[in-house]
Write a structure and sequence with these properties.
Chain A is mostly helical and 122 residues long. Chain A has four helices and no strands. Chain B has 21 helices and two strands. Chain B starts with a helix and ends in a 5-residue tail after the last helix. Classes of the chains: A mainly alpha (122), B mainly alpha (483).
Chain lengths: 122, 483
């Protein structure tokens, strides 16, 4: 039950903080500290401060998806290689062989991508 | 890690290596026709490993992998089905021109997943193997990239995702109750508790049935079957209906006979009810189909029902104490593989020439090609379960197992359903022999499909006259298998 008490405190905080954030402007307006003068720019949707160019429903080139997938695969490969590299000495040749097989399988995929021209942007 | 562990895994390792070799070969060779020949020839390697493993009993990787007669039986079945499907899909894949290497590679990867499924004794490995086979199969279903194929693929993807999620949830619950993912340790934890006193275990078991039920296309997880079979390349539909279903049954047998052996009375009744619902639903809907692939799709749902009779007959024993249900189910799966592949291959042969898959296209086939009509009639008779075909013996063994397990009502339901199924199977036969043909042009099947037909229908007839060879094989596979 002890741990659940902490969770309960966090849940109360998680509700209190955003609600108070929303209530502060109202409180300031009611107190007469904050003036109320809306205009077009103020009511605009805030994205990042830079004026938006064009619509956001544009089509992306589908090649992004090839590169995203390839990136993901090699990213995951790196994540798997790091723990092996840290313990390479303890894992001896068995670990080396296992990693070699793993890299070989990924390389087959890379060779496939390369020969099928998935790595070219045209 | 001793070398022996890898030796026990060698069929799967070699099959996956061949899949990668096919991908690499596809990037260098210009004559794509070589790929099918290479795939077929290379299948000899995992087959050789499987033959050399015959008679071995062992565990590898700390019990993750179980090699016994049961798993080797299924490995033979999967390799045989894959070889037949490679031969039969050779024409359509070559005509399509694109993605030939991918087709064979994905087929091999799906098979390696199925082979792994039949020989694991651990829940997470079962899940991984199941996903390997299902994901490859999804890509194969969408192979022709027509609207219908893509629709079928998306349906298969979404529904398999849902069923996998349910199965994982079930596995998590079973793990929570038993504290282990190993089937034997689950069996110890489950013991002979009453399921109704243990709602978490009951829920976990039911959710796992949902996941496996998707794979074997039993009611109520059958929604994907007709659309996927219609949209997929016919050879892939044949593969799904036979290999994928056998893989599902291998896992169900392993999980339920090992892990839940203590509560077999409860799940035996569950499978008995599912069996009756499944066969009745499949047979009733199949009567109203006009497309031959949809008809075969509903017929596979019905056959999943017949096969579940073997699961329900877990209590059936012969005088030596061996499980009749398991033997009958293994026999049925193999006989069904020969029969259903044969039926699908005739559909491929006819569709290649006529570009149509409706039953009307088969009208008068007996005049245009007596051989194809005869072979399809043979396969349909075997699906109905009439002698002198392997389907007759398969149903005989299964239903006699049900009678021995005191499930006479289940056997009666099975026989009644076979009678219903005769109506729509023989309707196709009637169209082929009694209806006038649209034209008198002769149909000659291509050499590749003829070879595939020779193997499968040869099996239907051979084991129809000499079922003892196959039965001995099934008995040996089921021996030593708990249950």
């Amino acid at each position: 039950m002890h741990q659940f008490g902490f969770i309960a405190i966090f849940m109360v905080l998680a509700v209190l903080v955003p609600v108070s954030m929303l209530l502060i402007p109202y409180a300031l307006t009611l107190a007469g500290i904050k003036p109320h003068r809306p205009d077009k720019v103020k009511n605009d949707t805030y994205e990042c401060g830079v004026r938006t160019v064009g619509g956001s429903w544009v089509r992306f080139n589908f090649r992004y998806y090839y590169f995203a997938l390839s990136f993901l695969i090699f990213d995951v490969e790196a994540v798997f290689l790091f723990p092996w590299a840290v313990h390479a000495r303890q894992l001896h040749w068995f670990g080396f062989g296992a990693v070699l097989v793993f890299v070989a399988i990924i390389t087959v995929g890379l060779a496939y991508e390369w020969r099928k021209k998935a790595l070219e942007w045209k | 890690m001793p070398i022996r562990d890898y030796y026990l895994l060698s069929p799967e390792i070699s099959l996956a290596s061949i899949a990668m070799a096919v991908i690499l070969l596809d990037t260098v060779v210009k004559r794509k026709g070589l790929l099918a020949i290479f795939t077929l020839a290379a299948l000899a390697l995992p087959l050789a490993f499987t033959i050399s493993l015959w008679g071995e009993e062992g565990r590898a990787f700390g019990g993750l992998l179980i090699v016994d007669q049961f798993s080797i039986f299924f490995k033979f079945l999967f390799l045989g089905v894959t070889a037949a499907v490679v031969i039969a899909s050779q024409d359509s894949v070559t005509n399509f021109k694109r993605f030939q290497g991918e087709f064979y590679a994905l087929l091999l990867l799906a098979t390696s997943g199925l082979m792994l499924m039949s020989s694991t004794g651990e829940l997470i490995t079962i899940f991984l193997a199941l996903e390997l086979s299902t994901l490859s199969a999804i890509a194969l279903v969408t192979f022709f990239k027509t609207d219908q194929a893509v629709e079928a693929g998306i349906k298969y993807l979404v529904l398999s995702g849902i069923s996998s999620a349910m199965m994982l949830y079930g596995m998590a619950l079973v793990f929570g109750v038993s504290g282990s993912t190993r089937l034997e340790e689950i069996a110890q934890a489950v013991g002979t508790t009453r399921l109704l006193d243990n709602p978490a275990l009951l829920m976990g078991m039911l959710l796992m049935v949902a996941g496996f039920g998707f794979k074997i296309s039993s009611v109520p997880f059958q929604m994907w079957v007709p659309d996927v079979y219609q949209g997929a390349p016919t050879s892939v539909a044949a593969y799904l209906s036979v290999a994928s279903k056998a893989g599902g049954f291998a896992v169900i047998l392993r999980v339920f006979y090992v892990a839940f052996a203590g509560v077999s009375m409860e799940w035996s009744m569950l499978f008995a009810v599912l069996a009756v619902v499944s066969m009745t639903f499949g047979n009733l809907i199949a009567m109203f189909q006009s497309n031959i692939k949809r008809l075969l799709a509903y017929s596979t749902i019905a056959h999943a029902g017949y096969m579940m009779v073997g699961l329900a007959a877990v209590a059936a024993r012969n005088p030596i104490g061996e499980g009749l249900g398991t033997q009958g189910l293994l026999f049925y799966l193999t006989g069904y593989a020969f029969t259903n592949l044969g039926a699908f291959f005739v559909v491929i042969a006819v569709a290649q020439k006529l570009k149509g898959e409706s039953i009307d296209d088969f009208a008068g086939l007996a005049k245009r090609s007596p051989l194809l009509a005869g072979l399809l009639a043979l396969c349909l008779i075997s699906l109905t379960g009439l002698p002198p075909t392997v389907g007759f013996w398969a149903k005989l063994y299964l239903f006699s197992g049900a009678v021995q397990a005191d499930l006479v009502w289940l056997a009666v339901a099975g026989v009644l359903n076979s009678a219903i199924s005769a109506y729509y199977y023989l309707r196709v036969v009637k169209a082929m022999y009694m209806s006038p043909a649209a034209s008198d042009e002769r149909l000659t099947p291509s050499p590749a499909i003829s070879l595939a037909l020779l193997v499968t229908t040869g099996g239907v007839l051979f084991f129809g006259f000499a079922p003892s060879y196959l039965l001995d094989f099934a008995v040996r596979a089921a021996r030593g298998f708990p249950g």
